[in-house]
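quick one, 288 residues, struct below
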Amino acid sequence: MSWVDSIQKAIDYIEMHLLDSDLSVEQIAKASHSSAFHFQRTFSILTDSTIGDYIRRRRLTLAAQDLVNTNDKIIDIAYKYGYETPESFAKAFRKQHNLSPKEARKNLGPLQSYNRLVIKIKLEGAIPMNYKILEKEAFQIVGVKRTYNYKNGDNLRGIPQFWNDVHVDGTNDQLIDLNNGDVQGILGVCVVNDNEKQTAQMDYWIAAAHKGNVPNGMNSYEIPASKWVIFEVHGAMPNAMQDTWKKIYSEWFPSNPYKPAGTAELEVYTNDNPSNADYYSEIWIPIK
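---
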């Protein structure tokens, strides 16, 4: 099964089971033959939303269609799409459609429709992606970490604040001084350990490659030996980094014979001004 086929199969699974009350990220990821974390991460990169957001928007889109096209009671429609009370349904419905269910039934305003997703390969030959593949032995990083729930999108909200905090409290400057390892730059490292997969938890490190003792107030982690694909990123943060992640998953992986290995992924930031239009950084993804 190709990369695109596996992702589309998972989306098809979501659509087939939209009304299931126990629909979970783990079940969806299984349909794509990938881990829950990897599928959620890929989905978020491609769509700028979590799987939970997609499911909620699709259910409320279909609920709006039922309100307009049937005579079913509002309370029955609420239960059908997973809401335990008419009040919780009305609150979620208004947040998406800017109308109450009663107003939607009376056609008192436009409704917001989120259509079923279809994954397609993009052919973007005009702008090349510069990358290299290398094998590297295990190495140590030292730094600080925080744990996030990736199922509810906690990581998408929390990581930008984490970066702000390490710049304010001086940790970033300390990491620059500690960076004596083989990878030059400050690292954003995404790790999902086996014992965290059951709880949808991920660790995010802000760290540096370091040979030597672990400083007080910091922790260490060993990045395993891997075959890496390393992508060049050119442009101001955060847009250049976000755009490159999307190109990797929408263009590079679908047209290459590799898959992410599922171990720690790195963003490598140089010490120049990240607001500069020619700022250089890298994305490191372990592959198999």
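The chain has a mean pLDDT of 90.
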